[in-house]
């Protein structure tokens, strides 16, 4: 697969920032009261991601390592200001709906995370496509959450009312509704065993239960303690063996030095 296509696929599917990595939860939960808000925030973040990755990758050999984080923030803040002014000038209704969350894109952990982990280490073109993939993945996630919340809370789809007001559940338009929807979508993801930060895809632990804390009932607690005690005893035994070997080596070196000194003394006495 072409590297650029792979970066886009990676951001949308394999490492989706919302459903897989669980990053950027603040705007995810705050602005997804409607599908259009989620789409607008996602596309704004995508634009910032693409150009910040592009600029940071192009300047990666120029920016000193000691000041790279402040430099990244300055670049991102400049781009966010441009995006904010464009939205305010051309889409004022979206600007009013998103409010403070547009400037807060500056400190979005997705943007700084991609800048630090990918753009600062790779070429400009692949970094731009990495930003595109992550941005589209973020946009897709926010739009899906917005569609579900808008449909349940207002009975609408992208502003078009579908169900009567009597069937609306208004709590899904409030802060608790965002958690309910995110939890439901994550539960579906786990049900279908799709990769995520919550479905137990982590490498198996050395514990007796395999380290699957999400499904732990506590019944293997004694076994876990036994495994940990055995591991601790093994580590202590290895440390003691290493200490003993070091002591024996030092004693042998000391004995060899004493024998050498005695031989030299005997040789000097024989010459006299």
Automatic annotation (TrEMBL):
It is found in: Cell membrane; Endomembrane system. Keywords: Cell membrane, Coiled coil, Electron transport, Membrane, Translocase, Transmembrane, Transmembrane helix, Transport. Its main location: membrane. One of its GO terms (cellular component) is endomembrane system. The chain crosses the membrane at residues 19-36, 42-62, 69-87, 93-112, 124-148, 168-188. The keyword Phosphoprotein does not apply. The complex is composed of six subunits: RnfA, RnfB, RnfC, RnfD, RnfE and RnfG. Part of a membrane-bound complex that couples electron transfer with translocation of ions across the membrane. Belongs to the NqrDE/RnfAE family. This is Ion-translocating oxidoreductase complex subunit E. The lineage of its organism: Bacteria, Bacillati, Bacillota, Clostridia, Lachnospirales.
